[in-house]
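Revision sheet: C-alpha cells.
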Amino acid sequence: MRALSSWLLLLAFAAACGDRSATPSSSAASSSAATTASSSATGGPAPATSASGSAPDATAVAEAPPKPDDPPRAIDMHVDTPWQVKYKDRPVSLPEGHATMAKLKTGQYGGIVYPIYIPDYLHDSHPTIRDAEEIFDTVESIISEHGDVLHAYTKGPTPPGKVTAYVSIEGAGCFADDISQIDRFIKRGVIFIGPVHWHDSALSTSATGKDKKKRGLTEQGKAFAERVYKNGGIVDVSHMSDRGFADLVPIAERYGAPIVATHSNSRAVADHPRNLTDEQLRIIAKTGGVAGLNFYEKFVREGGGATVDDLAKHALHMIEVAGVDHVGIGSDFDGGTPAKGLEDASKVPALAKALRKAGVSAEDVHKIFSENVKRVIRSREKQRAAASAGGSER
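Predicted:
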C-alpha cells in the first residue's frame, strides 16, 4: 500500500510539472503580479540584476501601468546634485538644495537620474577619464549613503516606497582620447550620454558654444555615438548644437535606437538655443525617444520670471508637435533657478496639477511623469545585456 501511494504521488507530481510547463502556475502569476505592482509603485523599471550588480542583463519585467487616480511619481531625467556634492562641497542634505531626500519623498518621486558632469574650468585642456570615474564614485556614494530612500537601478527591482536612481553623463569630452572607455561606463550602469555641455567639445559643438560654423559632431563624435548605441546606451542631445543633432539622426536610425533630450524645452515657446525646434521634437518622437521638460526659468520663459503655468505651455506645445508619448521631465534641479511654483523636488506635484488644469488627462500626466522614460530605458536593455555579455543584437 505504501509503495502504491508513493507511485500515485509521483504520478501527481509529474502531472503538475507537465501543467506548469504548459501554462504559468497561479503562484508564478501571483509572484509576477507582485513584482510588477512593486515596480509600478516605485516608478522605476524592474531590471534583472547581473551577477556583478552592474548593468542589467535582461529585459525588464512587464509592469502594470499606474491607475489614473494614482499620484504621479516623477522619474526626473536630470538632477545635478552630484556636481554640487563633488565640486562645491555641498552635502545632499543642505536645506537649500533642490533635491534633498526629504524633498524627493515629499514630491513623491519614483526615479532620479544623476549626471556625471565635470566643469570645464577644472582643466586647461579638457576633463579626463579619471575625473569621470571620481564623480561616478560620488554618484554611487550618494545612492549608497541614502539607501533608505534611493535604490540603484543596477541592483534589480526597486522596493516599494524607494526612488530608483539612474546615472547619465553630461558632457563626454573626456572620452575623446579613447572612446572605447565608454563601454565600461555603460556596463557599470550609465544610461543617457550627452557628448557635449555648455562649451564645444572634441566630440561635438554646443548649442551655446563659440563655434560660429556649428560644425556638429566631429568624426570622433560620430564614432563615439556609434559606440554608445552599440553598447546599449542612449545619446542625449540636450546641449548639442542643431548641426550636431542633425549629424546624430542617421546614426540613431541605423541602430533603431531612441534619441533623448533629458532636459530641454520647446524653442517655439521660448526662443533659446538650448531648447528644441519643432522639427527636432518630431525626430525625437520618430526614434521613439523622449524630451524632458526643463524647469530652469530662462529656458521656460525668455528673460526669466517663469512660472509652473509657463512650463505647462511648453508641455502642451510639445504634446501637439511630438505626441504625449514623447514628453518627460528633466528638471535640472541643483543646476539653476527653477520656475516659480517648482522651486524644488517637493513642489513637482504642482506640475501635475498645472497639466490637469490645462486639459491633460490623468493617464497622460502619468506618461509625462514616468511611463515614457520607462519605455525608453526598457527599449535598450536587451542591447545592453548583449553588449555586457560580449555580443551584440546587431
